[in-house]
Q: What sequence folds into this?
């Protein structure tokens, strides 16, 4: 049970799924509010203290992507899309618009709650007064202020581009980053959509941090979407 009292807005028009989500949240001690429509969700977001949102895309009044666009005009609150749409282009579009994660129906309570915990950890980091300079996930550690990377306390020698890629993933640990977002952050907007360059860079990084690059422990491939660094 959590004692922080986070309030999560559940935007879902299917009563059965909405009740399932709310029961899962209540069992962990989260506060929650619900809305069956996109407009109702926007009204609650401006009138209530909401910490994060679980958002279905197939809403009766308008598409959930419009909610993401609107919220991102004024808030960085975590948004997890919970949708039956499983096409890669749908996932990429929602993530590029500003969603933090994408959970495809059907899903388990365990997976839902794990995604929520990751999203809330990002919220707490954003609210801190000091920039986090050291990250550790499993045996992998990076010290941003010193540009040092260690695996099982052994220093790794990464190229500047490999370091930039790892640092980007670490700062967003647990979040799915689309290939388009990563390319823009690493090479800049003018670089275009050269996914082959990213795949080559990722392969080099995995060879250095993964015991078995073919079965990665740290950097997961979200097929057709992008990459996600685990958050233990």
A:
């Amino acid at each position: 049970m959590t004692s922080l009292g986070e309030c999560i807005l559940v935007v879902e028009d299917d009563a059965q799924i909405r009740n399932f989500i709310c029961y899962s949240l209540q069992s962990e001690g989260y506060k929650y509010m619900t809305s069956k429509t996109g407009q109702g969700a926007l009204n609650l977001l401006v009138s209530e203290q909401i910490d994060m949102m679980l958002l279905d895309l197939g809403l009766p009044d308008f598409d959930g992507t419009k909610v993401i666009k609107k919220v991102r005009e004024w808030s960085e609150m975590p948004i997890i899309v919970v949708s039956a749409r499983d096409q890669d282009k749908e996932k990429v579009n929602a993530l590029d618009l500003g969603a933090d994660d994408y959970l495809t129906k059907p899903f388990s309570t365990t997976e839902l709650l794990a995604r929520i915990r990751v999203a809330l950890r990002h919220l707490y980091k954003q609210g801190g007064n000091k920039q986090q300079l050291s990250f550790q996930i499993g045996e992998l550690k990076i010290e941003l202020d010193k540009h040092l990377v260690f695996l099982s306390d052994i220093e790794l020698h990464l190229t500047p581009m490999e370091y930039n890629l790892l640092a980007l993933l670490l700062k967003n640990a647990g979040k799915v980053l689309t290939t388009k977002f990563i390319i823009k952050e690493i090479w800049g907007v003018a670089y275009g959509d050269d996914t082959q360059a990213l795949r080559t860079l990722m392969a080099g990084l995995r060879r250095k941090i993964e015991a078995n690059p073919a079965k990665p422990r740290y950097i997961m491939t979200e097929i057709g979407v992008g990459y996600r660094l685990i958050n233990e």
The radius of gyration is 18 Å. Helices lie at 15-27, 38-47, 64-71, 88-97, 109-127, 160-171, 179-187, 195-209.
